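By way of example, what follows is a protein record of this kind.
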Amino acid sequence: MARRMRVAVLGGGPSPEYEVSLQSARAVLDALPRDLYEPIPITIGKNGEWPVVLEPGLADVVFPVLHGPFGEDGVIQGHLETLGIPYVGCGVLASAVAMDKIAMRRAFLAEGIPVTPHVWFTGHRWRTTAPQELVEPLDWPMYVKPANLGSSIGISRVTSFDELRAGVEGALAHDHHVLVEQGVTARELHCGVLGGYDDPLASVVGEIKVSGTWLDYKAKYLVPTDNRIPADLPGSVTEDVRELALRAFRAIGGYGLARVDFLFEEGAGRLNVLEINTMPGFTSGSAYTKLWAASGVPYPELLRRLIDLALARSSR
């Protein structure tokens, strides 16, 4: 009998999204087909400590189910590159660009991909410039976001200068750079991308029904999420979303997988790309995996395809 392929599944890590990562990693470990793969769970501590020394002899391929800084920003990808171990998902550059909300928008704008109006600034500029001047192009409400973080951590919706001050100081606790984005009344859509550099595929389009004002951390992870898959949209809008998802994926040099999120202002017929996530939530109930299940790719098959893509990139 041929030896099963060893798949090291990384979870945890020194990120505020530690607990979310553990949920995703556990789901991947449980769903890996045991006739093909030998799963090797590796939980990286909150302090960045590894329980084992990762090396090519330990694993044939790595599935880094790590969210946020360290895991989704190119850091772990660079480490795996130096070790010469194949890994699932986007490479160093794509991961870094997608993680940085400012760099991401620059990449999108360079490729003519629509995004909502926004401004950004450093902590120093915030403390030496009048707030009215910094956000002058925008109207209330606004969304204040740390440049490099996920799962809505550090994000706040603000409707006054007092709230803006509190929101920016909160964001600066997580990052040196802050993005302030124009708030819009819109439907929140998402689309999954799966594939290599040359032939990525787009999933069906889904919609997240937000029970509160916006999709904060609690709405994402602590209360049941109302995912409508497929979303009830005109066919032309669905196709526009799928096309923009692929364009966004290519704009950052994506590989393997990503989930692209959109804001659809239905009255104006305006569609903007909100962000691209290179390692989205990965439980069987997460948006990305549900989008592909609805597209005819069940969870175990999705894992197999992603591992195959990792090995194909490495063989080049």
